[in-house]
Amino acid sequence: MEVATRFVFGKELLEIAKTDDSFVVCNADTKACGIEMMGELFPDRSYSIGIAEQNLINVASGLAATGFKVFACTFAVFATMRCCEQVRTYICYPKLNVTVVGTHTGLQVGEDGATHAAVEDVAIMGALPNMTIIQPADAVAARSIAHAAIGFTGPLYIRLHRNPSPVIYDDSYQFELGKATKILNYGDDVALISTGIMLQKVLDAAGILNAKGIRVRVIDMSTLKPIDEDAVLEAAKATNAIVTIEDHSIIGGLGSSVSQLLAEKYPCKVKCIGIPDVFGESGPCEVLYTKYNMDTAGIVAAAENLVDQKNINFK
Predict the structure, then answer these.
(1) I need a surface site. Which of 101, 131, 134, 246 has the fewest CB within 10 A?
(2) Residues in domain Transketolase-like pyrimidine-binding (predicted)?
């Protein structure tokens, strides 16, 4: 079964709202993640601002300044770029209790057009002081993150996905802010660090690599800021070879964070898989993933190459 993380997150918030009146919702007149239905269930806790995203953030910050916990939801490309100044100055600077929910991220938005593909959003939000960034790998994680977001205080950016994606975790999964999930540990040849919906491709690649005799670790980095330094350093020290995989630009995302950390604390071989220094483009996402070597075959090839480089250097 495949489900879009954006709809699972929104539906879970609506369920939570039935027994928890601690939060309100602002939306920009889009069907981004389903929490727009809040207005039908609890009209006094839902504010439709219209297609005016900067006003959306201003209203959300005003509500938060008066003591409300606020969820502000729209497409990520608008939440992070059109509203960058508002998020920076009116949410992050005063450390207000606003969760910005950005949907339709990465190359999954290819069929909506290149201009709507948010491939820079993590880099933008990550540069803002006081901002925390998380994204689920599947529907189960999205549901758990919805509960965690309710209890979180301060500026928070949740990155959600447009299309249905495979369910990976079972109901025992529990999101923990700032902690990576170590999914597989076949050995110490190479570590694959994934974030978001790339995880299934990474797991498929790990199976292929293991069958070839390359021992792989797989880590799901659901919190992008603050990154789990201990998990990255442990993997680096064990393998001396790290591949990062993300549906985001390789500039300013997971790969950049991992590379910066390792450059300072444990230099080793690193390969960043993601969108190169280009804009998103129109087209089916799977075709685009293959174009940029973000598919399973591309991950396998990158890991094999990195292991070969490491072995040459060790001889």
Answers:
(1) 131
(2) 3-167
